[in-house]
Amino acid sequence: MAKGHRTQIKRARNENIDSRPKAKLSFARVSTTKAKFVLDAIRGKDVNSAVGILMYTPRTGAKVIEKVLKSAIANAENNNGMDPENLYIEECYANKGPTMKRIRPRAQGRAYRIEKKTSHITIILNER
Question: For residue 127, with 0-12 CB atoms within 10 Å meaning exposed, 13-18 middle and 19 or more buried, which class applies?
């Protein structure tokens, strides 16, 4: 248990909060490996070129990641008062989410398991 008054504890906890604009999508229906291919293509780029890359990327999950990026840009503009022209993607990653297990019937009464994988996609922006 932390020592001090409740407000002191809250103040100390809030000092460590990251003020960079970000957006997170939990339980996205795309596997982490497929999402990481797309995220590697946009990491470190400015947001305008990243949106252009995502718009014309035919890979799985590009449309979902584009929505998350646009949400992060809107968060930076509305919540932090940042200019969208000066933003770039500082961090972006996809963590593993829960796997949905489904069963597919096979020959002679057997059942094969199909795993529908999910991921948690996070994009963190910063200003140049």
Answer: middle
| pLDDT digits 0-9 by tens, 65-114 | 999 999 999 999 999 899 999 999 999 999 999 999 999 999 999 999 99
Q: Nearest-CA neighbor of 117 among 93, 99, 102?
A: 99
CA distance 115 to 80: 39
Superfamily of domain 19-127 in the CATH hierarchy: Ribosomal protein L22/L17 (3.90.470.10)
State whether residue 19 is helix, strand or coil: coil
Q: Determine phi and psi for 29, rounding to 5 degrees.
A: -85, 60
φ, ψ for residue 18 (rounded to 5)? -75, 130
Read off the tokens for 44. Answer: 């470190």
